[in-house]
Amino acid sequence: MGKRRTLLLLLLVLFSALVASVSGYIDEEEESEQKTQGEKWFLLRHLHSVVKTDAGSMRLVKGGYRRGSFLHSPMHIGFISMEPNSLFIPQYLDSDLVLFVHHGEARVGHIYRDGLVERKLKHGDVYTIPAGSAFYLENRVDQRLRIICSIDITSESMGWNAFQSFFIGGGTYPTSILAGFDHTTLSTALNVSTEELSTFLTRQSSGPIVHLSGSHHTNIWTKFVAQEPHQRLAHMKMVVNFGDAASPKEDESTWSLRKFLFNLLNREDVVDRANHKAPSTYNLYNKKPNFKNDYGWSKKVDESDYSPLKQSGNGVYLVNLSPGSMVAPHVNPTAIEYGIVLKGTGRIQIVYPNGTLAMNARVREGDVFWVPRYFPFCQIASTNGPFEFFGFTTSARRNHQQFLVGKNSLMQSLRGPEFAAAFGIGEKRLKRIANAQHEQVILPSSSSSPRDKTITEPERKEMAKLERIIGSLGNDMFMGFV
């Protein structure tokens, strides 16, 4: 049966190539131009540096509207890298965040229902941070931290092609949002002198990602991390509840972050209580595959698995393909899909609504691609090793993918006289083609079927029969495909 399928596909390919060469249907220069344009649209290879310091960096591939195109990509993909013993200082964003720990471990702290929540993140963990929720990231382990995150472009964002960080802490670089207030007003609110305020707002100059030791400029953040949880909450909450005067016993020259925290908000919130109420992390690698066969596996996480995704409106997934295998051509009817290659190399093929090839691009580790809703596509692993990619979808609801070929595909569901008529062939021929693939979702490569060195007489007769069938398909194929 494997020989039969392979021969049928081979003859179809050869026939299509012959038709193209005779009719002039394919123009090589035009095809090359379309391929290049497709890669510009669907491969997001242009990394923009958002943050870069000695302690780490954040880079971004941007979504947004494509100039000269009807396509809209409503998500940025961010890559955060942090050196050991470093801190991404407190901030909040105008966009929801979904974090995925690709490598290393971290501690994240953020505001959840007026309380400070702290979570330890490890390899494979997924965690969400709502827009407007102040947060910080800390890497205390002796290895580099790498995080992949989705950043939604919402109608409230400050521009389609950018997102905005609002840094709570800062100095000359980055600038704290506190610095924007009139200094007389702010010194009154904090109940400190303008001289003290000026010193406080200009000490930090090491950037948004800082080392936690060995630097005078970052000493303030070392103190921040060392504070009790309720003190860190005070810094994070930014709730105006001032009024207690500074202790007259405390000399201005020794004024520290601790004093600022207590004056900013004089509350003793119990962080353990907030931690208990807040959502925990979700580890993608610990999840059992939603689908698995001899050629690979796939995992999907939506709001039914992890309720915080409902807030962001995003889903996440992870796919691992064995060498040469592919995810069957399919369509996402409810979501735009983004993928990031974590391991290996492969190809991404995307098809336009008019049935022409939009992109057939080779991708490697670190590449980002996206597929518009309704566009048919497939992912194919190279034959030299496994192919693994992680990604986000723009819907937190269950994404019922529609597979176009395979045992569980639309080819099977729609099989009947109407579908056969649409191709201009008989039902028996359609049935034969639809049943040629015995696998579903993840398909083997053409070389996966066992091959005998010798061909038996029954096989020769079967091949001859297939040749006659393919030969009789000529006029039908012209009617259906050209």
Written account of the structure:
- The chain has 482 residues and is α+β, with helices and mostly antiparallel strands.
- 27% of the residues lie in helices and 29% in strands.
- The chain contains 14 helices and 27 strands.
- The protein has a seven-stranded antiparallel sheet. Strands 6, 8, 9, 11, 13 and 14 form a six-stranded antiparallel sheet that branches.
- Helix 1 (2-23) runs parallel beside helix 13 (457-471) and helix 3 crosses helix 4 (194-200).
- The longest helix is centred in the first third of the chain and has 22 residues, at 2-23.
- It starts with a helix and ends with a helix.
- Mean pLDDT is 77; it is low at 6-31, 238-270, 449-455 and 469-482.
Strand and helix map with partners:
Elements: H1 2-23, H2 28-42, E1 48-53, E2 56-61, E3 64-65, E4 72-73, E5 75-82, E6 86-93, E7 97-103, E8 106-112, E9 115-121, E10 125-129, E11 135-139, E12 145-152, E13 165-167, H3 183-190, H4 194-200, E14 209-211, H5 219-226, H6 229-237, H7 257-264, H8 271-277, E15 282-283, E16 291-293, E17 296-301, H9 309-312, E18 315-321, E19 326-331, E20 337-343, E21 346-351, E22 357-363, E23 368-371, E24 377-381, E25 387-393, E26 402-403, H10 410-413, H11 417-423, H12 427-434, E27 442-443, H13 457-471, H14 474-481
Antiparallel strand pairs: 1-2, 2-5, 3-4, 5-12, 6-11, 6-13, 6-14, 7-10, 7-12, 8-9, 8-11, 10-15, 16-17, 17-18, 18-25, 19-24, 19-26, 19-27, 20-23, 20-25, 21-22, 21-24
Helix pairs in contact: 1-13, 3-4, 6-7
